[in-house]
Amino acid sequence: MNRRRTQIKLLFLILFSTLMVFFRNPDAVFGITAIITLISLLKLNFLNVKNRLISLFFVSLLIIIFQLLFGLTTSLYLRLFQGLTAALRLLSLSLLVFLFTETTSVTEIVSAFSFLPPKLNLMITISFSLIPVILKEISTIRVAQQSRGLPLKGIYMFRSIFPLLIPLLSRTLTRAEQIAIVLQTKGFKDA
Fold first, then answer.
1. How distant is the alpha carbon of residue 28 from its chain centre?
2. Is there a contact between 85 and 29 (Cβ–Cβ < 8 Å)?
3. Is there a contact between 44 and 146 (Cβ–Cβ < 8 Å)?
4. What's the mean pLDDT in 59-74?
5. HSE (side-chain half, CA atoms, 13 Å) at 159
6. What's the rounded Cα separation, in Å, for the pair 189 and 15?
7. How far apart are CA 147 and CA 151, in angstroms?
């Protein structure tokens, strides 16, 4: 029963995400974004939603700036309008996925994919199980870099991406190699 409920939630997530891409009415996009934000604030931890909204604010601001700078074939008002609409779509889709992942355990999400072939199911299981590990690695690398004197706040935030990204990429590739070795020793065939 729990698996069926998770599959229905997943189906709703996919359908709603597809509909959000095709919505052309900006009032509908704004209304849906407001509803999803309100539901997220009511259902989830306020600090988690606040942190998600802050990170999405910077991404949304970049989308609006890029739309203003590179959409020179249309008027300034239309470029701003399109940038805001795209930013609201991104915000609503991200909050919807965040709402789904915060209200559904990893075990339930993985069991919802049980209808898939075993190799694809294994791939999804490994991917979902590595997300918390990678997030923990990011915080560990961030603390290590801060202890070495790397400023991670304010204007230095963009300059500090590479000192965080390169060790994270190295650790992630090492972990992927270890998983591949374990799968080979357990007899998992790739074909």
1. 23
2. yes
3. no
4. 84
5. 7
6. 34
7. 10
DSSP of the chain? -HHHHHHHHHHHHHHHHHHHHH---HHHHHHHHHHHHHHHHHHS-HHHHHHHHHHHHHHHHHHHHHHHHH-TTS-HHHHHHHHHHHHHHHHHHHHHHHHHHHHS-HHHHHHHTTTS-HHHHHHHHHHHHHHHHHHHHHHHHHHHHHHTT---SGGGGTTTHHHHHHHHHHHHHHHHHHHHHHHHHTT----
170: pLDDT confidence band, cut at 50, 70 and 90?
A: very high
**CA gap 135, 56 in Å, rounded:** 17
Measured CA to CA, the distance from residue 40 to residue 71 in angstroms comes to: 32
Tokens of 121: 């199911």
- Smallest CA-to-CA distance from 53 within 107, 82, 90, 3 is with 90
Q: What span, in angstroms and rounded, lies between the C-alpha atoms of 125 and 128?
A: 5
The confidence score (pLDDT) of residue 174 equals 92
Report the predicted TM-score, pTM, of the whole model to 2 decimal places.
0.67
Task: Read off the pLDDT of each residue in 111-122 and give the average, rounded to a whole number.
Answer: 83
In 3D, which of 4, 5, 180 has the Cα closest to residue 103? 5
Rg (CA), the chain: 20
Site of tokens 């990678």: 134
DSSP 8-class letter at 133: H
Output the six-digit token pair for 84: 């805001």
